[in-house]
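#struct-help
A.M.: can someone run this one for me? Single chain, 74 residues.
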Amino acid sequence: MNTSFHPLSELFAQLGLPHRADEIAAFIEAHHGLTVPLLDAPFWSSSQAAFLAEALAEDADWAEAVDHLDALLR
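D.P.: on it. Structure tokens below:
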């Protein structure tokens, strides 16, 4: 397992999303209050959801950033 730390900005870039701090804050504000599992959120494309699922399933170096995003969206 790679133990690299990936900040949210890198996760957002990996997902093909705007990744400046203000853009991340706007995304979180727009989607805050998520009541479904993160992977089932309607705002992900199929490739984004697949990346997130793989990151969590493999406990990849991205898993911590994905967990952090999930917590921020709750």
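A.M.: thanks! The mean pLDDT is 93.
D.P.: also worth noting: Residues 34 and 74 are 5 Å apart (CA to CA).
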